Amino acid sequence: MIKYLEEEHDYSGYDEKYGWIHAIAHCSDALEVSVVQTSFNLDLINELLSATHKLFCQINKKFIDEEEYHLADVFIAGLQNNKLSSTDLIKWFNSFNFNPESSSQIEFHRFGNLKSFAEDIYVKLNTANLLDGDLKKYIEKEFSQMY
């Protein structure tokens, strides 16, 4: 599933002719179930981080059918099951260099996708009283306060 997520280039959600395609969301749903399994080890976490990084860097439009929320659920499950730490997630966020003030619409959409992803993690973990203080401060500083 990680390889599929990494290689998928059809970011369609709903299509009038075919209905729900939603490949990224469906793949994410499967990964959310997978990440909590004992066999989902550190190597797979690192592959997941790499694949999702590539996804956010190559998409050329804004997600419009909540794909980023499905992706966030994978990371939330990883955090809740101690497969991923807040420090790992902050380090992963820092690996992006999107410029939200760029004149490039693609760059703007990429940042917007990552921002929506981060905000969804923030809201869901905070609602469950599971939001780590460092992650909370990071998301507030890097995503919520400036834009």
Automatic annotation (TrEMBL):
Pfam families: DUF2785. This is DUF2785 domain-containing protein. It comes from Lactobacillus amylovorus subsp. animalium. The lineage of its organism: Bacteria, Bacillati, Bacillota, Bacilli, Lactobacillales.
